[in-house]
Amino acid sequence: MRMTAAVMYEQGLPMPYVESQPFRIEEVELRSPEEGEVLVEVRGAGLCHSDLSQVAGLRKRKLPVVGGHEGAGIVREIGRGVSGLKPGDHVVMTSVADCGHCPACARKRLVLCESVGMARSQGFLSNGQLRLASLDGQPVYHYSGISSFAQFAITMPSSLIKIDPSIPLDVAAMFGCAVVTGAGSVFNSAKVGPGDYIAVFGLGGVGLNAVMAARIAGASMIIGIDINEGKFGLARELGCTHTFSARDEHLVESVRELTKGGVDFAFEVSGNKTAMTAAYDVTRKGGEVVAVGLGATGAMHDYPHTALVSEEKVIRGSFMGSCIPARDIPLYLRLYQEGKLPVDRLRSGTISFAQLNRNLDLLEHGEVVRQILLPNG
Ligand SMILES: [Zn+2]
Ligand SMILES: [Zn+2]
After folding, report:
1. CB 359 within 8 Å of CB 22
2. CA–centroid distance, residue 186 to ligand 1 (Å)
3. Rounded to the nearest whole angstrom, what is the distance from the C-alpha of residue 364 to the centroid of ligand 1?
4. What pLDDT digit, counting tens, does each position of 284-317 carry?
């Protein structure tokens, strides 16, 4: 079928994006779902900081590619052999998928799946297939197996979680990346417990989910840090007990004094090197730095080795919140429905294809938290 999609042909175009137009809005061809594949009508797709990294070229992608790696929609067609989903089902689309048989999947470490990771880096679906093409038949690649900046998407069933149809799809869209990454870093990776002190560097969609999850986990001090102080009001409403500007030259001393020696867990969500150093420095002896933000491919960081050993600090990577979608997304949706994880508060508004490039600029400037593209109006 023919459909409208946001296609990127080149990475590294300059800001402002409203002028350089990294995404071209155009018609592409999407083939019918084959065996083991599902066609979803996309009803909401979140704009994530990872999309900005992709636009900026911090991590190389196969091009041209249809953007978008979190979303929600309605199943329209299923290929042969798909069980557990049927046309009309409402689903969350997440880039986490599993092959079901590699060593990582056998240990339930789905975000580490070798074959899915390989397919993603090549721009294919996790079954190694390509279902997108330009109108003249040239290959167009899938982004993280999702490509939700499009009216429709073909995805694998393990990337789709069936949800209660009463949940608004423009809220559900945020559960595919922002919620699983932020909440999962707290619940699954760090395992924050009652009374813990935590700090979160970067109060965007992912960071604020970490804040909300830490409140649920019973953390007694939740310190939010961002370069944009305009985010502090919402951050405090969602659970931050204290907020600091990342530009504050006394940040590290202030946090260490407030916490009497440092936090138990420092979550670094921005991927920024200076923030990572500060996250290490505000972590107490025996505490953990949880690195959530990806940063640029190949970026190297320093740490004081003797202190790492003698203070028994831990530096832990947390990718996509160590998520197991079939377990975690229904849990997080239940917490949302119970009012404990008010993800809807993060939604900064809905946008159309025509606003996509301009609104990347707003995200870059930290003026919005989570904007939701409505590819079907
Ligand atoms: Zn994301
Ligand atoms: Zn696997």
Report:
1. no
2. 16
3. 14
4. 999 999 999 998 889 999 999 999 999 999 999 9
